[in-house]
């Protein structure tokens, strides 16, 4: 049976999730695709760190051990920050590796360049996991285009923020305690500043803007406010009035083709489509010319939702064997 060799860049929450899913579903993937999946290398920062045992897999802190291995077909990238991730992926694409990334910090800024590069080099580049965790928003918007035209995309794009706001309202837990819980559960970034300042939601909004509208607004023109200014008293007052705080990222295109974006906490009432979206869930409302409004809701962060989005990209790339239904 032919095999596909893969490398993982990063073995934290997301990287470990990819490893677990590929192992847990090994046999099903083999039957569905006709390929045996072989994880050959894992890149980390600190090879001495204690981590889940991965027998037979080379753990390295040297990217060149991976990029110089021409047996490897696919690279899953789940490291942190713009660099060195962008340089690694640029070199990987140039060398002909197929890529799947979860790194929204890097992709919001360099996604367009990487996608163009991937097209030139004729390699796949999947980025479903960069935006809204396990919610298949990239696939959905991609499949709506070009038969329809997207007018507006808005929603909750940061699971940590929504989790914190929900905990403050439901359990009366203070901000810092709720944030700590989000960190323990693997929802928050290693440095959660970008989660609570709104920057993480902003970057996801920019990824969606590039996909839906073919461009991004000038980043400086988009006001970005986080949930860090929302107090437990604010949340309790809103609750008394049957209102809820949601951290909403919003981008729309006007008749002249200008883009208008904003990111920040919004007070909403019971009739709002985001009212019931609690916990780590994200929700995205896509408004188009022909479809009207479409809403997707699901887990926006965490090991399995994120890793499952990446494995989903991977399986789509390698294709499924056509199933033949036989009538007895
Ligand atoms: P994490 O738990 O902090 O793990 C990061 C991993 O990357 C660690 O294994 C770390 O190595 C490795 N790493 C970091 N910088 C590196 C470098 N310069 N060179 C080599 N290895 C490096 O982070 P995570 O939560 O898995 O997130 C990974 C990526 O996915 C991030 O870009 C994040 O924004 C994105 N993401 C996360 C989620 C989520 O729910 N957690 C969801 C969607 C997207 P060591 O183990 O040696 O420290
Ligand atoms: N820290 C991010 C969040 C992870 O909470 O939404 C998913 O991108």
Using the coordinates above, name the CATH class of the largest domain. Alpha Beta
CATH homologous superfamily title of the largest domain? Dihydrodipicolinate Reductase, domain 2
In helices, the fraction of residues equals 25-40%
**Class of secondary structure makeup:** alpha/beta
Element-level helix/strand string: EHHEEHEHEHEHEHHHHHEEEEH
Percent of residues in β-strands:
15-25%
Q: Examine the secondary-structure arrangement and name the CATH architecture of the largest domain.
A: 2-Layer Sandwich
Descriptive report:
By secondary structure, this protein is α/β, with parallel strands linked by helices. It has a 6-stranded parallel beta sheet, sandwiched between helices. Strands 9-8-7-10-11 form a 5-stranded antiparallel beta sheet. Helix 1 (13-24) packs across helix 12 (303-318) and helix 7 crosses helix 8. The protein has 2 domains: 3-133 and 305-327, Rossmann fold (3-Layer(aba) Sandwich), CATH 3.40.50.720; 137-300, Dihydrodipicolinate Reductase, domain 2 (2-Layer Sandwich), CATH 3.30.360. The longest helix has 18 residues, at 104-121. The two termini are 29 Å apart. 39% of the residues lie in helices and 22% in strands. It contains 12 helices and 11 strands. The structure holds NADP nicotinamide-adenine-dinucleotide phosphate and L-homoserine. L-homoserine binds next to helix 7.
